[in-house]
Design a protein that fits this description.
Distance between the termini: 51 Å
Number of domains: 3
CATH architecture of the largest domain: 2-Layer Sandwich
Structural class: alpha/beta
Radius of gyration: 24 Å
CATH class of the largest domain: Alpha Beta
Number of strands: 18
Bound molecules: NADP nicotinamide-adenine-dinucleotide phosphate
Oligomer: single chain
Strand content: 25-35%
């Protein structure tokens, strides 16, 4: 039994994650930090609705709807924010930091949108702001990047960090079902929200990638600097054709050093079936890190769910209970010149185009003319399905590495060709 003074914990939120954290604390996991560490004791938990049934039973008087009763309680030394959203999470975290309390959050949205202010505030007040659960649920990734890998220059991060979209894409690939159909199934199973925007349009992945970029490269990546595309527009043909060509489609979140800066992007990508990332299916998450000393690393696991996420939150809490560790992002405070964010226009990779074309002679020559003029070299052209009634055919073009800006210009010009009924897909092929 520890003789150290207990450290009071205040929870902001008692939903999926909050309940699992409360359960872990009640079960005594707050005393696992080792000799000399302060035992963690749950004092208060903030909710909106006192009547709502809870997944965890807490002693009378612990649950409250009064934020001040948690944030301003002098017996509470660390605040765990598991409410989600930008506000009032930002105000509550700021107030807790102001009051000299350490904070732990699982909230990637507030970190993406208000991270600059929160980290600066925490550093100024000399308190810790830890957030392992904000990316990849139970996967330890923030800790390794901010401590074990500090001696490295991180060159690249590539990740699948949204379980909902990975579940949908896996189903679309395996069952050749439409996006709408799979989304409905995912909603019925609780894998997708009633309003799926944050997941399927890539916002959630962009928030998490912003958090990773800060930790790995020491730069702030605001949402508007992240190239973001979701998976809503993907059609079943892409999965069939990608498989024929040896690829799987994933929603990729990537941040890589290029052109003297960091390029940060979220978009569906063709991943070669020969690499491990192509096999990360369903709701699993993965983060692939490349450091200059350590080489490539691979962190895979359950990216959401109450217990894995509580594992990450508890890890942060126990670190605080132990009292060790750095107080601010070590990479951000290095003397090296700050990295700039690089525009997506400069990105270079192979591209996959699917064009629905009129089935008549001379079509390819017109398309090839545009691509050639814009220095986009064709690697292969395959005529896939034809629709004899409409006299149309799917033309799939794979390119050699090309520059994004030229590709977007080519797409605009191809769209205007009378022989092209539709540019059905333009997908980037991830290079390995
Ligand atoms: N769920 C996951 O698997 C997972 C994984 C990783 C990270 N996260 C992150 O963890 C955070 C929490 O997620 P969650 O799934 O646990 O959410 P949730 O189930 O919706 O729980 C949110 C909790 O916060 C409370 N709350 C929300 N707004 C409030 C307000 N204005 N005042 C007082 N209480 C408020 C809610 O109270 P009521 O219960 O009274 O409504 C609820 O207890 C989010 O940032 C999420 O992105 C979640």
């Amino acid at each position: 039994m520890s003789t150290a003074r207990p450290l009071g914990v205040g929870l902001l939120g008692l939903g999926v994650v909050g309940s699992a954290v409360a359960e872990a604390l009640v079960a005594g996991r707050g005393q696992l930090a080792g000799e000399g560490a302060r035992p963690l004791v749950l004092k208060r938990a903030l909710v909106r609705d006192l009547i709502r049934p809870r997944l965890v039973t807490l002693p009378d008087g612990v649950v409250t709807t009064d934020p001040a009763a948690v944030i301003d309680d002098p017996q509470i030394g660390v605040i765990v924010e598991v409410m989600g959203g930008e506000q009032p999470a930002f105000d509550y975290l700021s107030r807790a930091i102001d009051g000299g309390k350490h904070v732990v959050t699982a909230n990637k949205e507030v970190l993406c949108k208000k991270g600059d202010a929160l980290f600066a505030h925490a550093a100024k007040r000399g308190v810790r702001l830890l957030h392992e659960a904000s990316v990849g649920g139970g996967i330890p990734i923030i800790g390794p990047l901010s401590s074990d890998l500090l001696a490295n220059q991180i060159n690249s991060i590539r990740a699948i960090i949204n379980g909902t979209t990975n579940y949908i894409l896996t189903k679309m690939a395996n069952e050749r079902a439409s996006f709408d159909q799979v989304l409905k199934e995912a909603q019925a199973l609780g894998y997708a929200e009633a309003d799926p925007t944050a997941d399927v349009d890539g916002w959630d992945a962009a928030y998490k990638l912003s958090v990773l970029t800060r930790v790995a490269f020491g730069v702030s990546a605001p949402l508007d600097a992240i190239h973001r595309e979701g998976i809503r527009g993907l059609e079943t043909q892409e999965f069939r054709y990608a498989a024929t060509l040896g690829y799987t489609i994933k929603l990729l979140a990537a941040a890589r050093r290029e052109q003297g800066g960091v390029l940060v992007r979220v978009h569906p990508a063709l991943i070669p079936n020969s690499v491990p990332m192509a096999k990360v299916d369903g709701v699993l998450n993965v983060v692939e890190v490349e450091g200059d000393l350590v080489g490539p690393l691979w962190f895979q696991g359950r990216g959401a769910g109450p217990k894995p996420t509580a594992s990450a939150v508890m890890g942060d809490l126990l670190r605080i209970a132990r009292g060790a560790e750095i107080r601010k992002n070590a990479r951000a405070s290095r003397p090296a010149p700050a990295l700039q964010l690089v525009s997506m226009d400069a990105h270079e990779c192979k591209y996959y185009f699917r064009l629905v074309c009129k089935d008549r002679p001379g079509v390819l020559a017109q398309i090839a003319g545009i691509l050639g003029r814009l220095q986009i070299s064709i690697a292969s052209v395959i005529q896939m399905d034809t629709n004899p009634d409409r006299r149309e055919a799917d033309l799939v073009i794979m390119t050699h590495p090309s520059v994004e800006k030229s590709v977007q210009q080519a797409v605009r010009e191809i769209r205007d060709l009378g022989v092209v009924a539709r540019v059905a897909a333009v997908l980037r092929v991830e290079g390995y």
